[in-house]
Amino acid sequence: MSDWDEAGCAEVAERAAELALGVLLGHERARILAHLDRCGKCQEDVRQLTVTADALLELLPGSEPPLGFESRVLALIRRWPCPGRFAGI
Ligand SMILES: [Zn+2]
Prior knowledge:
The protein contains five helices and no strands. It has about 90 residues and is mainly α.
């Protein structure tokens, strides 16, 4: 067996959701993409999942932090004990 064993249809089906969500990385991602280059059926399955994932992400409401959030965080950070202060840095 070589270092490079391309994924098969069953493995692609198992990992397709991770690929569509963009959380499949590195060697695993490369193996799946290599399979998609030569398998139209898996390519279509992943394309449909990607479209669905994108549509779901568009449903999420945008969120802004509440008014004054940044200034409250900065005030907390300024009050937080800094280890450098005790070390004389
Ligand atoms: Zn396939």
